[in-house]
Design goal:
six-stranded antiparallel β-sheet, four-stranded antiparallel β-sheet, single chain, about 210 residues
Length: about 210
């Protein structure tokens, strides 16, 4: 083959194996074999949420809240409703009133006198029967005698002490509740209620010492 043809063939082979402009042949080989790069930088931690203001009882319940509770009890089919003015209080979060805790007595069914507790929040009324029904159906209601916050977290734990009459004695029955401010859900906390009762709690202070 003429030297000139050999020279052109050599140029062609060199062009085929050449690295792209600005890169060495070693760089081309490395790029072809490199695995995908994974960013192992940890994701930023979520911003902490703002804690809710502590819920506390402060001041007597308003007449409007008491009336709303009585109306709600009648809608539930109860009669002879008597809301306790001395044991119904405003629920405050900081300086803002967020709801009203109400307690009282009513005839829950024909010939079934009982006690109740509940929360009024705007036009939402949630009432829960206690003495005279469910786990407490063997006792008769003597009315609420004390109420207080057991734990101001979320949900809030609330204690109410009721006077009750068993066939053989007059007793004070401590009942714990949970309240969710966002939904106004108010319910008996069976575990804490049992714990307080077995410990012989007779007051809100007793309940605070015995329930966890």
């Amino acid at each position: 083959m003429p030297k000139f043809m050999l020279y052109l063939a050599g140029l062609s082979l060199a062009a085929c194996g050449a690295a792209p402009e600005g890169q060495s042949a070693e760089a081309v080989a490395d790029n072809a074999a490199s695995p995908a790069v994974v960013d192992e930088t940890p994701a930023p931690a979520p911003a902490p949420t703002k804690a809710a203001a502590t819920v506390k009882l402060s001041g007597a319940a308003s007449a409007a809240s008491l009336a709303a509770a009585e109306a709600g009890a009648r809608r539930d089919g109860w009669s002879e409703v008597e809301v306790s003015r001395s044991q119904s209080f405003r629920l405050m979060a900081g300086e803002r009133e967020v709801a009203t805790l109400v307690t009282g007595e009513a005839t829950l069914a024909p010939d079934v006198p009982g006690c109740f507790a509940g929360v009024v929040q705007g036009d939402r009324v949630t009432l829960v029967p206690t003495i005279g029904q469910g786990d407490y159906e063997t006792t008769a209601c003597g009315g609420p005698v004390a109420a207080g916050i057991l734990s101001p977290g979320e949900p809030t734990s609330i204690g109410v002490v009721f006077k009750a009459y068993s066939p053989n004695a007059e007793v004070l029955e401590p009942i714990a509740f949970t309240w969710d401010a966002a939904t106004n859900r108010f319910a008996i906390d069976a575990a804490r209620s049992k714990q307080a009762s077995l410990a012989g709690a007779q007051s809100i202070a007793d309940m605070k010492r015995t329930v966890r």
